[in-house]
């Protein structure tokens, strides 16, 4: 099992549970998380979803070992939803989503905060959008959501630099609402989730819809642009060098790539 699901007081807690892989998303976890969001959206007893991770990481993003297999083996079995299906589930999720970043968050482990209605981070947690270090493009509509959330310059640094973002920097940017001591993170996130869950679900859905509906077309357009750019770059010289370097335990060397890469 890669995802733990627990219900209490109309809050459904989803816990990413691949601690040995730093909760990296493989096809199985993408499917499980998308299915869980779709089910929570339809469940009349669920008012709020709280998402967190087990162990020392929130999520290390896409499982790079599996990504390498997908990039080099056209017959590698894909999930029913996969990454794109999870993003679709996040875009369409009609109820409040609370995200508690308990540790490292890379790739989708960082960009998912663009879909969080409330975000919380442990004070030792860190975020990274490692797209340029992997030779690929942004994901999860972050090219639209991050500038809207944190401003163009903060978003440009986060998406272009592949540098770590501390919890305090994430709070200062506006990526998360509050930074907590690790032992207080889930208590704080759950307190906020339960405060929302005590309200009428119909009203929560209406408020979220009025906030998100004006942005839906722009989010979907950004997602489509990103997916096209990602598909173009995945398996290219820069991406293959990055994945090979990861598999070999070394730093990638992009200086030897063909001109333009």
TrEMBL record:
Q: Which SUPFAM superfamilies match?
A: ClpP/crotonase
Q: Which residues form a coiled coil?
A: none
- InterPro entries in alphabetical order: ClpP/crotonase-like_dom_sf (IPR029045), ECH/Chromodomain_protein (IPR051053), Enoyl-CoA_hydra/iso (IPR001753)
Q: Which Pfam families match?
A: ECH_1
Q: Which GO terms describe its molecular function?
A: delta(3)-delta(2)-enoyl-CoA isomerase activity
Places the protein is found? Peroxisome
Keywords in alphabetical order: Isomerase, Peroxisome
**PANTHER family given for it?**
ENOYL-COA DELTA ISOMERASE 2 (PTHR43684:SF1), PTHR43684
Protein name in UniProt: Enoyl-CoA hydratase/carnithine racemase
Species this protein is from: Nocardioides kongjuensis
